[in-house]
């Protein structure tokens, strides 16, 4: 971190606003990160970190993203809303599942009834095979 002398940039703004601050020596030595934390340097730090972490499968964030921090209260509001929506979806899916099961039972009963009728008709057909007088049915 660079060592500089002189007054902080924000110190003049605070004096102009009328806020009281304690007095500092005029040309005191202090640490200043203004040169380290420029936009270009921060972008370069992100790039170099992403390059170093690429071997672990991490990717760099989107450049120029407009994403902002979500407050804890907003996060929990969104979470509660999503939970409500998911519970409603689960309820709807359970209802649809019950209806599908009822429809499946109905179709199974129809299949069993159809199979019984088919067996009955085939046995009747086999029994009546000897009674066939029609010339087309003689070969069957």
Kindly describe this structure:
The protein has 140 residues and is mainly α. It is 57% helix and 4% strand. The protein is built from 3 helices and 2 strands. The chain has a two-stranded antiparallel ribbon. The longest helix has 56 residues. The radius of gyration is 41 Å and the shape is elongated. The termini are far apart. 0% of the residues are buried.
- Taking the alpha carbons of the first and last residues, their distance comes to 102 Å
Sheet of most strands: 2 strands, antiparallel
Tell me the strand order in the biggest sheet.
Answer: 1-2
Count all strands and give the number.
Answer: 2
DSSP strand (E) fraction? under 5%
What's the Cα radius of gyration? Answer: 41 Å
Individual helix count: 3
Mean pLDDT figure? 81
Low-confidence stretches: none
Which outline best applies? elongated
Backbone structural class: mainly alpha
Present the secondary structure layout.
Blueprint: E1 3-5, H1 9-17, E2 29-31, H2 39-53, H3 72-127
Antiparallel strand pairs: 1-2
Short summary of the structure?
This protein is mainly alpha-helical.
Which properties best describe this structure?
140 residues, mainly alpha, two-stranded antiparallel sheet, 3 helices, 2 strands
């Amino acid at each position: 971190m660079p060592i500089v002398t002189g007054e902080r940039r924000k110190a003049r703004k605070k004096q102009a606003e009328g806020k009281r601050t304690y007095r500092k020596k005029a040309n005191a030595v202090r640490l200043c990160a203004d040169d380290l934390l420029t936009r270009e340097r921060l972008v370069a730090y992100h790039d170099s970190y992403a390059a170093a972490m690429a071997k672990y499968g991490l990717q760099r964030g989107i450049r120029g993203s407009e994403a902002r921090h979500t407050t804890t209260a907003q996060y929990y509001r969104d979470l509660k809303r999503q939970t409500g929506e998911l519970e409603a979806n689960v309820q709807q899916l359970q209802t649809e599942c019950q209806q599908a099961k009822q429809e499946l039972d109905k179709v199974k009963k129809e299949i069993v009834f159809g199979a019984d009728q088919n067996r009955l008709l085939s046995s009747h057909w086999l029994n009546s095979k000897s009674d066939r007088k029609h010339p087309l049915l003689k070969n069957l």
